[in-house]
Structures are given as structure tokens and as C-alpha cells.
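Batch manifest, entry 17 of 40.
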Amino acid sequence: MLRKVVTGANTSRFSCLIDGGHGEILDIFDDNFSELFHVLNDVLNIDVSINREETIPEEDLLATDILVLGCPKDFLVDHEIQEILKYIREGGNLLIISDAGGDLANETNLNDLLSNLHIELEPTMIRDKQVNMGSSLAPVIENLNLSHPIMRNVMRVVVGGGCTMSMEEPAVSLLSTSMTSWIERFHPDETEAWKVMKVGEHWSLMASVLHGQGKVIACGDVDMFSNDADYGINALDNHILVKNMFNWFLSPVESSTVIDWLISRIAVLEKKQERLEKMLKELLATNESLDQVDSVHRGGI
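Output type: C-alpha cells
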């Protein structure tokens, strides 16, 4: 359901709606994100608009090719989540961005949306003292999923800390940390809010998934889209990665892929039905046993 916006003779442009109604850090018209606006508007020829309403108007959502939730600091309400999921299933695309500490530190509920997409943001922050851009809070990421088109011509990217994420199929990891990295977990109720959790493993910082006719990218770092010289959009290969993300969104999903998704959904529903039937049988059996015990008890009185 890609929607081209005709702006002139023989010229067609896609559209991107950046949400700004939930206190998002990523404000496309803020000077700190001017390079991202340049990439979208001038390089990729995407018309960019921003939502300032408290909830995303349904008509604006349906009219855009790409929706960006750029690290909100407020909660999405349930009907917004359901509308966004419907939008994706019908061919829309979603870029959902968090930052260090995930939902817990940013006081939002992106996981309520992502749980429907097999992805979960974690309340963590990535650090690396050995492979970085001058600070352990700016780790360089070289562990990339090179089989994915988003990683075409990408060799090294840098993030400004950012949170990790876990996922289940059909979601796939796009980039993850090196073995020299460690993660710190956010504990808001303790004296030291950030505590070292694990060292020396690969933790995912970005994932993608197909959902119906649409596509989703979840990113654990908002700074890589900014103008920051050390870990922003122009650092290392971040600009290539960002362009690849939006180009991937604008390439159509093959019908065979949609059919595979539908089949997988049917399989999931069948398994849920089997579990419900098993639970019902167990409840009926328990109820029958209780009736027998009650009958014996009454007979003995």
C-alpha cells in the first residue's frame, strides 16, 4: 500500500510522517536533526511532515507511506496501537526508535506495540571501552546482518549508547554488539540507577520484521539519526544505514512473502486454539473430580 504524493509534472514522491505528539526526542524540524531531514527530503525525495496532535490522526496515518516514532516520552493509548498495527498489516511501514533504558527509562510503552511484532526493548544501555568513537558511550558496531538489504555497503556504524532488544521469529536482528561490549541495566528505584549486567556477548540493537503487507524496523538508539559529530548520521556508515532503511521501506513486499505471513499467522492461531481446548478439557476434568469429591462428601454425611 505504498502511496505516492504527486508534487509536479512527472514527479512522484513518497511520504513520511514523523510523530511529535508523544514527546518524541526525534523532531525532524529541530536543528539537531537537520541532516536527517536533508537525507529524507533532498536525497531520497520523501515528503516529510510531523504530527503535533496528542494522538495520531487516522487520516494522517492512512495517508503516509512511513510512520516514525522517534523515541517518545509519553504513552501510546490502546486504540493508537491497534490502528498502527492495522496500518502496517495493510501495507504501511513503521520505524520505531528507543534509546538507553528502553521503555523503563523513557517512560513510555513501545513494547505494548512491539510485543505484537515479536520484538521487545530491554531496559539497558550499551557501552564499550575498546571499540568506540572516543567514549565507551559511543560503541562502534561491526557485527552486522550482511544478508539483509538494509546492510548493503555498510561496514561500521556507531551508536550513542542505546538499548538492546530481544526478538523471536519472524523478526531478525540487523546489528549487534561486539564481544568487548557490556550492558548496564536501568534500576530507577536504586541509588545507582545503572548497574553492569553482562559482559562479552552479542546483544541486538536493531531488528526488522514483516507484518502483513508492511515492514517494521526497531532501533535502540535515537542519537544515530542526529547531527552529533561522534555518533550521529554522518559518523562512519550511519548515513548509508539510514538511507538503506528508508529505501527498504519503499520497496514492495512480495505477494509470496505476504502469503507466508498469513500461513504463519494461521499456524499460530491453531496452536492457540489447541492450548485453549486443552485448558478447557483440564478445567472440565477438574470440575468433574470436584463434583465426585463433593458427592462422596455428601454421601458420608
